[in-house]
Amino acid sequence: MIASFFQWLNDTQGLNFSVFYDAFDRSRFLTGLWTTTYICVVSIIASMALGLIGVWLAGGNSRLGRLVVRVYVQFFRNTPPLVQLSFFYFAVASLLPTVSDGFGGQSPLVSGTGWAIIAFSLFAGAFNVEIFRAGIEAVPSTTVEAAESLGYTRLQLYLHVVLPLAFRICLPALNNNLINLVKTTTLAYAIGVPELLYAASQIWSEVFNVREMMNVLLVTYVGLVAVLVWIMGRWERSMRIPGYST
Asked: CB of 29 within 8 A of CB of 23?
């Protein structure tokens, strides 16, 4: 019924939303949606892990560890994500060995999707380090001193006292960074990753429905961001402590 409506819309009004009535176009678009969702989910998880590891090293006693984190943060915060992605895909990838594809040919060790995840995770992780650092520094020093007086080790202090409070403080900033990460995934188009923008461009280059596909693309990204905002909102509400104001 939906396909018939959009077919009628194309025949009578000239509005060609082919992804809703053409099986081939719909399959390409859904593949792009899946690829974008996969990149987003893996990059979000990896960037948060990098942020936690980075803030742990930045607060440690190792001068080398602090230096590595400082260089990492400054490099990825102060260079464009597209340049970072191109550097990994064209420069770093050329240094890696290739593997047999089983058909007598050679394929790269890391796929374009893999490089996109690596680049986007490192990019967002650099910002997450600073976001988590700000949250940790906002935890009252008296709370930290009380935990230390009870014999908490540094790891126990972070896991049971500092991080739970720091997360509540930095969730709004973390939410903004992760939303920006979802939007940044469109840059994977530049290295031929079949994500949403790539799939949409293939469709409109063949069907000549740029206007319609751009609207579909816009609504789809609004939906992806809305889902992320809803999840982060639920997480923020679940961590709220009565009487504790951030």
From this structure: no
CATH of domain 24-89+108-238: 1.10.3720.10
CB neighbours of 171 closer than 8 A, spacing ≥ 6?
Answer: 232, 235, 236, 239
pTM, two decimals, is 0.91
Residues 43 and 120 sit within 8 Å (Cβ to Cβ)? yes
Side-chain-side CA neighbours of 198 within 13 Å: the count stands at: 20
pLDDT per position as a tens digit, 93-127: 988 888 877 776 778 889 999 999 999 999 999 99
How many CB atoms lie under 10 A from the CB of residue 145? 10
Q: Which two tokens stand for residue 92?
A: 């770093």
For residues 124-148, give the mean pLDDT: 91
Nearest to 70 by CA among 78, 163, 118: 78
Domain boundary assignment for the chain: 24-89+108-238
Is residue 195 within 8 Å of 186, Cβ to Cβ? yes
Tens of pLDDT, residues 48-87: 999 999 999 998 889 999 999 999 999 999 999 999 999 9
